[in-house]
Amino acid sequence: MDTKLTQEISTALQTSPQSHLTVIDPMTNRRYVIVDAEEFARLEDAGAIRQGISEMEAGLGQPLGEAIVEVRQMLRQRKWHFALSFYLNPKRTFRRMTYREK
Q1: How many Å apart are CA 20 and CA 38, to the nearest integer?
Q2: Cβ–Cβ under 8 Å, residues 21 and 13
């Protein structure tokens, strides 16, 4: 949901030396931080990167080579695949592929 800023908040954002503005809801006394959408996206990206590094350092990740091998094995085991419904045979004529063909 998007809401327009009041003139007071807009002026405070423009004159603030920081890239964010802290505001207080007078009804609940909760504090909120107003930050530019691009800056927020960068903060989210940085948080996701930090989380990924922490998971990697904790040994929670899977090496890429292992993941590729696992995906290939899963694809070989599938009896039903939908990637191609037709393929070209050596005589250059089309024939319908059955779902059980590898």
Answers
A1: 12
A2: yes
**Distance separating alpha carbons of residues 57 and 39, to the nearest angstrom:** 27
Q: Which two tokens stand for residue 79?
A: 């009896």
Residues of the chain with pLDDT under 70: 77-102
The pLDDT, as a whole number, for residue 62 is 82
**pLDDT value for 96:** 55
Cα Rg of the chain, angstroms: 27
- 51-81 burial string, b = 16+ CB within 10 Å, else e? eeeeeeeeeeeeeeeeeeeeeeeeeeeeeee
Q: Torsion angle of alpha carbons 85, 90, 95, 97, nearest 10°?
A: -40
pLDDT at 99: 53
